[in-house]
Amino acid sequence: VQIDGRTVAYLSRTQAVAYNARMRGMGYPGRTATCGATVNGGWSRPRAGGRVDKGSFGVELSLDWPVRVKR
Fold first, then answer.
1. What are phi and psi of 29, to 5 degrees?
2. What is the CA radius of gyration of the chain?
3. 0.70 exceeded by the pTM?
4. b/e map 25-43, b = 16+ CB within 10 Å
5. Which residue, 8, 29, 43, 71, is most buried by CB atoms nearer than 10 A?
């Protein structure tokens, strides 16, 4: 999963196999998909001594599963 060219997550092995098989079956082998996403949580706060306190972010995808092509 990439946002603005940065990898932020991965599909599980099972999901990746199913995704690739579905894309091949629809005639789109090796293609990537796009979808909406929401970034949740996280923070970045400066602390004393130049340290930065950071919290984790999560990404929620708006992805049809199983994958389908919208025409």
1. -65, 140
2. 17
3. no
4. eeeeeeeeeeeebeeeeee
5. 8
